[in-house]
Please model this.
Amino acid sequence: SLMFSTTMSKFDYLFGRFFGSFIVMVLIYCSIWMAFMTGYSIGKFLPWDPSWKEKEMLVFNAWSYLQPFIVWGISNLFIQGAIFFAAGALSRSTIVIYTQGIILFVLYQVSDTLLSDIDNKTLSAMLDPFGVRAFSIFTEYWTPAQKNSQIVPLGGVLLWNRLVWCGLALLILVGTYYSFSFNV
Model:
């Protein structure tokens, strides 16, 4: 209640909290691609794998680690962060956030089962908030060698999926701003 008695505006309060938590989540998520990148560049010199000279490895390319992080990591963190932030800011209850996480997980599992039966692959890809279905449709006819050596370009149904769901997350944040009551 002390926070609400300062001269801080509603915009500063809400979006300061959202972007503060979003940046922390992005920094935590950075450890994943940095660990993979470090493991690839250092792993071939470790002594317990003497056959590394015989193995043919691709040339190191940092973009192969950064592009999926930007396309998948940051966009999914933004979408999920907007949904969880809206529920937390509007309800002001942590139990709502925990319950929402469980419900979101269960709904995703159910929708994944239902969407796998849909004949229209584009519709099923667009209804997936995490982009997994769009990714699988995009790489459906790739060989294992292509899947191991190529980056999935941001185009087609994958691009539209990311744009639609990030746009929806922005709408959720705008709706949260207008629905939030800046008093105790």
Observations:
- DSSP finds seven helices and no strands in the chain.
